[in-house]
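Task: encode each sequence below as structure tokens.

Item 1
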Amino acid sequence: MKELTHQEMIDKGSIVNDDSGLNTRPNDAKWMIAEGWDAVSVAMRFHYHYEKMAPVFGYETRAETKVFDPTSKNGKLMIAVCEQMLLEICKQSSEGEEG
């Protein structure tokens, strides 16, 4: 798997630069990436299950977002949210290893 540059990750929406200081993938996230748990794949999985489960909860999703498009505003937002969640999980995991 080709390692993306920091700018490529920002361009594809998998990194959000904000004031939290979390603007790169932590080293301990490498296993997640190797196992396919990057923000794009998590967002795609989330979207798939969200669309599948929405009718069970009586919710009708929008026609224009039924197919996941990582280049759309909705797709980029979903990827960015998943990235932040993965960063939090990795941070909690690394803090647990230290203590």
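Item 2
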Amino acid sequence: MSFRSPSVATATAQPFKESSAFQVRQREPHLVTGLTFRQWYISRENIFGAPRTAVVWRHYVNVILDFWLEWAVFGWVWYLVGNSAFLYIKDSVSR
């Protein structure tokens, strides 16, 4: 006899936004959700790319927000939204 949960056949891809994972978990708490994180998400176009803004003070504010976001994601956001998995960009781990 084989038992298969109806949730097993469903897959959900989670973007960088924490709010979507929280909404999915609210609707269906038995689903497995994951959060993808990329360093320098606020201040740079990509991990090793140019800054998003040319204004110096705005770039430094964005860098501070990036540090805060990284602290929050690793510290308490995963617990708040109820993530079961965490994806980290491989290029930032291997460098």
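Check on item 2: The chain has three helices and two strands. The mean pLDDT is 76.
End of task.
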